[in-house]
Design brief:
The protein is built from twelve helices and five strands. By secondary structure, the chain is α+β, with helices and mostly antiparallel strands.
Length: about 325
Amino acid sequence: MNNESKTVDIDIDKQKFEELIDLLDAYTTIGSKVGRDVIDGHECEVRFVLVTPDLAAEILENHNSENRPFSQSNVAKLVKEINSGNWSFNGEPISFNSKANVSNGQHRLQAIVLTGIALRFLVTTGLDPKSFATMDNGRKRTGSDVLAIAGVGNYTTAASVCKFVYSFKNGNFGSVYRASESRTLTNTQIESYYTTLTNVDESIKFGAAMSKKSNGLLKATILGGFHYLLSEIDEVLADEFLTKLSTGIDLKQGSPIISLRNRLLKSTTDDNYRITSETLMKLIAYSWEKFVKNETVKNLKLPENYEINLYGSSNQKTLNF
């Protein structure tokens, strides 16, 4: 590229940048410009902006030509957060580089367009275009982080059990599959959902303890999650079933738990006998059905097209799928 071409490109970038500033000024109230400074040779400015659907649409159309591809799943998650009222100002800026293109925030902008809801953001302009490579490099905040900050004990297992129960109750493993619903908890949902699960702390502790007694045969999340779900049906039988499944102690000949444990043990030593997560869920549920009906089995084999349906207690209480 010759010097004349470089000059033209610089002029175009400057004009585009001035157009961006004029656009943002129209949505910035008096006193909402925080300040400016020259950083790495680039004049950067910080302000608070009420980002309306119209503003977001114009930015995406005219100032988003140098960004990564959209993640539709990420946009869908943000739309759900905004529509549910869970979104709150967190200080994370929408950023533009010195060429007037979005460096950070395109998914939030798209979510604003789709929801039709205006949100206030911190907006930075004038960043070095190379700064894009340094964004989002920190460890992502997780559901366990949220529960830890809230003072929940054993927060890692607690977060996993909450998500496990939520997934089950929204059809991820159950006989009712609700494709239109999200089957995972966001960080803004997990604390409130945790508080709705009565006595879930007992299931979390149970899962952690039984996982150790099983010598890692079953994870704390699976044991804790099933303990909560099955306790809704019959607490005494849930304790007995999962304790025997974990320890292998006090099992009578023909018990479906023996057959299930044998399959699990074989899967740990034989690479050709691995059990998928879906199959594991079904095997545990099917073994539970046999257990509560006091049926004996020689080999635990899933019926063709088996679907999980956690029935079997004396009062026939079922999960609220």
